[in-house]
Each structure stands twice: as structure tokens, then as C-alpha cells.
């Protein structure tokens, strides 16, 4: 297989400065709704990047669970590798890869941990099996075999069969306070359109076009 021959043209449309709203979330919400309407698989999936104490970047995919002017929200095990990184360095980046629409969005910012009340509201809305899975998995820890994880899940499923599943003390969430949002729209001949919104100190936004 020759990887140098794998390419395609991007022809679904451009992005022009005159069409950009003054607030980045207006455009982000439009693009997200269009991704949902296009029946893209996992339209809320985002890659999040963190950095460990040695400066080594790590990436993984999580699901966006809420969004407003205060930030992008996701949930995780607070003992996970990503949570350990964010405890040391709360800076983060997000990436939304909507390939079928020839679009990408890149977000940079920092995280704030969500309140127990906010976490409880979301945790209680999850399917019971997902709640039990949160208890069963010590995320990012080493496993001897998959059977160990499945066995723990079945044990906890029996334990919680007759009642509600309590919120684990080690499970929580983060709000990403965004400082920049970049929008990428594919263009013909690799002449892609890229615009970045940069937050000013007064919380207004500067908008700049970037070379592809």
C-alpha cells in the first residue's frame, strides 16, 4: 500500500469572513446541528489532548455532554490518566473531526472541575448499566484480562439490582473554558478555509484568517 497516493478533493463549500458571526459558539452550534442532521456517527465525539508531568502529550476521544457560554462539558473517572494530567496542568485542547462534512473545529482553553450537584444530575440521567460500568472500571489502570472487568460488572449489577446506583466519589466532570476556537472548512486544491476566534481580555473576540 502506497500511502502517498491516498488523497481526495474537498468540494463541499467554503467559509468566508463576511459570513462569520461575531460569537464563535453561534457558528459551532450551527455546525454541530448540521453534523447531527447529516446523521454522522458520534457527532459529539471530540478528541481531547492533555500533557503529563514530563511534557508528553496524550489524546483520547470522549463525548461532549453540554455546551454554553461557560464552556464545553465532559465527564470522566477522576482517577484516570487524563484527570491526573489536568490536575497538574489544566490546559487542554479539543478537536471535532466532522470528516464527511469536510470540517474540523479545534478548541483551546483550560478546565474547571464541575460541582458534585452538576455531576449528580448527569450521572442520574445515564442508563443504569453505564452507571454500574463507572463503578466497575478503574479507568487507565492495568487489567489482567477482560474477564476481570466483566466479572466486576456482573458483581456490581447484582449488588445494585434492587435500587439506585450511587454516584462514585471518583467520578466527575470538567468544563473547558475556551480561549480560542478554530474552524476549518475543506477547499479544492488544498486551499482550505481556516478562521480562528481569539478571546480578548474584555471577552470580545478577534477573528483571523489562517493560511491552510
Descriptive report:
InterPro entries: Pyridox_Oxase, Pyridox_Oxase_CS, Pyridox_Oxase_N, Pyridoxamine_oxidase_dimer_C, Split_barrel_FMN-bd. Belongs to the pyridoxamine 5'-phosphate oxidase family. Pathway: Cofactor metabolism; pyridoxal 5'-phosphate salvage; pyridoxal 5'-phosphate from pyridoxamine 5'-phosphate: step 1/1; Cofactor metabolism; pyridoxal 5'-phosphate salvage; pyridoxal 5'-phosphate from pyridoxine 5'-phosphate: step 1/1. It catalyses: pyridoxamine 5'-phosphate + O2 + H2O = pyridoxal 5'-phosphate + H2O2 + NH4(+); pyridoxine 5'-phosphate + O2 = pyridoxal 5'-phosphate + H2O2. Homodimer. There is one protein chain. The chain has one domain: Roll (Pnp Oxidase, Chain A), CATH 2.30.110. It has 212 residues and is α+β, with helices and mostly antiparallel strands. The model has no long low-confidence stretch (mean pLDDT 94). It starts with 23 loop residues before the first helix and ends with a strand. Strands 1, 2, 3, 4, 5, 6, 7, 8 and 9 form a nine-stranded antiparallel beta sheet that branches. The longest helix has 14 residues, at 24-37. 26% of the residues lie in helices and 33% in strands. It has five helices and nine strands, in the order H-E-E-E-E-H-E-E-H-H-H-E-E-E. The chain is globular.
Amino acid at each position: 500500500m502506497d500511502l502517498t497516493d491516498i488523497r481526495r478533493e474537498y468540494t463541499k463549500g467554503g467559509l468566508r469572513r463576511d459570513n462569520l458571526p461575531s460569537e464563535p459558539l453561534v457558528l459551532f452550534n450551527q455546525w454541530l446541528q448540521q453534523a447531527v442532521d447529516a446523521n454522522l456517527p458520534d457527532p459529539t465525539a471530540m478528541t481531547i489532548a492533555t500533557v503529563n508531568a514530563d511534557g508528553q502529550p496524550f489524546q483520547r476521544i470522549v463525548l461532549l455532554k453540554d455546551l454554553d457560554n461557560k464552556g464545553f462539558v465532559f465527564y470522566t473517572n477522576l482517577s484516570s490518566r487524563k484527570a491526573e494530567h489536568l490536575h497538574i496542568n489544566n490546559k487542554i485542547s479539543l478537536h471535532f473531526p466532522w470528516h464527511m462534512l469536510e470540517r474540523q473545529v479545534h478548541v483551546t482553553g483550560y478546565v474547571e472541575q464541575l460541582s458534585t450537584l452538576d455531576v449528580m444530575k448527569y450521572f442520574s440521567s445515564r442508563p443504569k448499566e453505564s452507571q454500574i460500568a463507572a463503578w466497575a472500571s478503574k479507568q487507565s489502570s492495568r487489567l489482567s484480562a477482560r474477564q476481570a472487568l466483566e466479572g466486576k460488572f456482573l458483581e456490581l449489577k447484582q449488588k445494585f439490582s434492587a435500587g439506585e446506583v450511587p454516584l462514585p466519589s471518583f467520578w466527575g466532570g470538567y468544563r473547558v473554558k475556551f480561549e480560542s476556537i478554530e474552524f476549518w472548512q475543506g477547499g479544492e486544491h488544498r486551499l482550505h478555509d481556516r478562521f480562528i476566534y481569539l478571546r480578548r481580555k474584555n471577552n470580545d473576540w478577534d477573528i483571523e484568517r489562517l493560511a491552510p
